[in-house]
Design goal:
flat, actin filament binding, 3 domains, mainly beta, 200 residues, Ig_E-set, Filamin/ABP280 repeat protein
């Protein structure tokens, strides 16, 4: 018999490469170049196999963050010390951690994310400073990042090596570049009162 496969799209059809791996075992490969809904037709000797045509949906997003929608219409204007609220929908992006940082003209503004536990969040921003002119990039950009990755945190310096003498002042560096949003906590365990840790 002969196996053929074709992927039909609303804008364009996609060629399907069929490769025989063994007796009655085939591998089919295709690469859609545009997002949308497709129908995958698989035929054996000119007749559809069971379940054919199959529905295939191709998404153009390259990362889960691109699937998150933000209602930016409410972020265009605000009043000092009055909360600005907007809705962020992460349901299409799947599981992950959402974080937001709100920068004013001079310093960070208060912002809080409220998790509705259904994949949607309310972002509340309270501006405490103003400027008569729009800053570059206004309306404001909300940066949505991927979940933190602790494996990218680097720790180095003499303070993490063996053989530090009693009363010897030592230090070490914790570098979180590339690890994503998160809070750094440092704990040194040992005899009670033996360590005094200061973070800078």
């Amino acid at each position: 018999g002969r196996l053929t496969a074709t992927l039909f799209g609303t804008k364009a059809d996609v060629p399907v490469r069929v490769q025989q791996l063994g007796h009655n075992v085939y591998k089919a490969t295709y690469t859609p170049l545009t997002g949308g809904n497709y129908e995958l037709h698989i035929l054996w000797n000119g007749s559809h196999v069971k379940g054919s045509p199959f529905k295939v949906s191709a998404d153009t997003s390259s990362s889960p963050a691109e699937l998150i929608s933000v209602d930016s219409s409410s972020l265009k204007i605000g009043i000092i010390n009055d909360d600005i609220k907007t809705v962020i929908d992460t349901r299409r992006a799947g599981p992950g951690q959402l974080s937001a940082q709100c920068m004013g003209p001079v310093k960070l503004a208060y912002c809080e994310l409220y998790d509705h536990r259904d994949g949607t969040y309310t972002l509340s921003v309270r501006p405490t400073e103003y400027n008569d002119q729009h800053v570059r990039g206004s309306p404001f950009l909300i940066h949505v990042s991927l979940p933190p990755d602790p494996s990218k945190v680097r720790v180095y310096g003499p303070g993490i090596e063996h053989g530090i003498l009693n009363m010897f002042k030592s230090n070490f560096v914790v570098e979180t570049r590339g690890a994503g949003a998160g809070q750094l906590t440092v704990r040194v365990r040992g005899p009670k009162g033996a360590f005094n840790v200061e973070m800078q």
